[in-house]
Amino acid sequence: MEAREIVRSDPTEIGLGFAILAHRQLGHTERLIRAISRPQDRIVVHLDTKVGAPAIASFQNRLSDLPNVDVFSMVACRWGGHSIVEATLQALRRLLDHPFLYGSLLSGSDYPVRSIDDFATYLHQNHPQEYVLVTHEGLPGETPDNLSNRFSCYWPYERLVSSRRKRLSSIRLQGALGIDRKLPAGLLPTFGSQWFTLTRKAIETVVQGMLDPEIKGFFAWTAIPDEMEPHMLLRNSKYWGNRATDNLRYTATDENGRFPKLLTRADLPDILKSGAFFCRKIEHGEDGGLCDQLDDLRARSRGFEAAN
């Protein structure tokens, strides 16, 4: 894939790429797409095949007025499994068929906080930074067991339906048997948020790594690879040195501190204070008017800029 970058005098005219993974709440996903769509950008949307052919066809039809949007469905995704990485890979490959300076991986439950023109300007001004949130990076001997066992053990997420108790029993059994899988291709333990914004060249590097048979075969048996495989590939590249300290997204955890909580209008002050360009996690009809408020704030911001 030949790297193609767009350079224009007006940063708001820079073509961006968006890859969106969605599996439910398609009403909100459609609203997200319409909120971020600009003619110069490319938006690729992967719908989990479990959504079903009728719903997928209906979704495609509703977005037929946006020629820059490509909706497809190829992978049945399962939380924790490599199928999510496969869906990401296919979406990014389709995105790379079009020119863009930066590409963002979004969830169907995301929503823009600030305008995409502002986003493009920010990326242009800080180019070539890479925006990926990392929660741990280290050497094999320095990585906590609860992280290292995600790759050192075999995790049959795609092949076996089992409870958390059974999975933990499997880890203990593999430990007793001396199973200790080593990362391939010189990769180092690195973990973080699945959602990122990267330069085109960095995305090309990550995609090339995902296509490598050795890497793909190894991560097919890992736990939650979407939160480590791209990160390890990026860390093993020359683009790691350009990494920023966050991924430009606002997320709040639930009361147990484990999973993203659903955002509502009550979270708006914290969202705005964060300075993030996107927020998640939002469900259609459950946001208490948060999306309406964000739409209004973006519209007023555009009006102010136009007046000045």
From TrEMBL:
It comes from the Bacteria. InterPro entries: Glyco_trans_14, XYLT. GO terms for biological process: chondroitin sulfate proteoglycan biosynthetic process; heparan sulfate proteoglycan biosynthetic process. Pfam families: Branch. It is a single-pass type II membrane protein. The keyword Disulfide bond applies. One of its GO terms (molecular function) is protein xylosyltransferase activity. GO terms for cellular component: membrane. It is found in: Endoplasmic reticulum membrane; Golgi apparatus membrane. Keywords: Disulfide bond, Endoplasmic reticulum, Glycoprotein, Glycosyltransferase, Golgi apparatus, Membrane, Metal-binding, Signal-anchor, Transferase, Transmembrane, Transmembrane helix. This is Peptide O-xylosyltransferase. It comes from Mesorhizobium plurifarium.
